[in-house]
Amino acid sequence: MTLAIFDLDNTLLAGDSDHAWGEFLVEEGIVDAEEYRKANDRFYEEYLNGELDILHYLGFALQPLARHAMEDLLAWRERFMDKKVRPMLQDKAFRLLDEHRSQGHTLMIITATNRFVTEPIAEILAIEHLIATEPELVNGRYTGEVAGVPSFQEGKVTRLDDWLAASGETLDGAWFYSDSHNDAPLLRKVANPVAVDPDPTLEKLALEKGWKVMSLRD
């Protein structure tokens, strides 16, 4: 089995679903607009700069899940998908996924964004395997805590290694597509690293390493 692994935000999607979820919560009046937007934007800037404290961020990002009933969250998520996510879908991304399927590759998304936000996106993309940051769920409600290791930076490698051990698979011939220098640890680990619409830091690294650079933007 050859794995074709994809980052989600700003790679398969033309935008960041995690940040967009925060914007959606603000626009719908579910959170305090001024305070939440300011924090959401600050954390996103820290992510882009490679300075994000992932546990600090998750302490902020998972609180809205903990404060509301699952029924409400699911209804909001459905609106979020239509309003924010579907406009981020890219024809070239669908074609790339189909190219890998035609070669018999096994497709996987690995993302730092939490599973609540990303699971329906993986379904739209028809990607069966999803490694995402796991929000803790107890008796049908989110607690606001993280279950296990967040799939961010080195955490992506840790979570993928766990998946490989559990499935009995390997990274032989694997591909990994990402836009972000935060994913350098996993890009270095695969046989076929690809920088997709990369940030300046990743673009520089890709050129130094001789990695393929491509765009999926329509």
Rg (C-alpha, Å): 17 Å
Oligomer: single chain
CATH T-level topology of the largest domain = Rossmann fold
**Strand fraction:** 15-25%
Number of domains: 2
CATH architecture of the largest domain: 3-Layer(aba) Sandwich
Secondary structure tally: strands: 7
Outline the biggest β-sheet.
Answer: 7 strands, mixed
The averaged pLDDT comes out at 96
In N-to-C order, the SSE pattern is EHHHHHHHEHEEHEHEHE
Output the structural class: alpha/beta
Helicity level? 40-55%
Number of helical regions: 11
Specify the CATH class of the largest domain.
Alpha Beta
Shape: globular
Strand order of the largest sheet: 4-3-2-1-5-6-7
- Termini separation comes to 30 Å
| Relevant CATH superfamily of the largest domain | HAD superfamily/HAD-like
Low-confidence stretches: none
